[in-house]
Amino acid sequence: MAKKSGSDYFGLPYIVSVILAIIPFTAWLLGALTRFSEGKIIAGIIRLIGLGFILWVLDLILMICKKHILRILPI
């Protein structure tokens, strides 16, 4: 069983999460899937339909600095 390493993207190792965050399409898709898996349906839909580039840049910065993606909506 994989150990949660403290980063997002389904508990993948930090370096793998950063590499996936660098690629725009995977960051967009995995960001939405991560929010859906947390039960945050509205936040997942927002990631899928809008704010793609802005959220990608913010996710990339936060993934490198704080090891987690941006969470705008706590719902």
What keyword list fits this structure?
about 80 residues, mainly alpha, about 65% helix, globular
Mean pLDDT: 76
Give the % helix: 55-70%
Oligomer: single chain
Quick one: overall form? globular
As a whole number of angstroms, the C-alpha radius of gyration is 11 Å
| Main sheet record | none
Structural class: mainly alpha
Q: What proportion strand?
A: under 5%
Distance between termini?
Answer: 29 Å
So how many helices? 4
Q: How many β-strand runs?
A: 0
N-to-C SSE string, H for helix and E for strand: HHHH
Which regions contain 5 or more consecutive residues with pLDDT less than 50? 1-5
Descriptive overview:
By secondary structure, this protein is mainly α. The chain contains 4 helices and no strands. It has helices spanning 14-22, 24-37, 41-49, 52-66. The protein is globular, with a radius of gyration of 11 Å. The N and C termini lie far apart (29 Å). Residues 1-5 have low confidence and may be disordered.
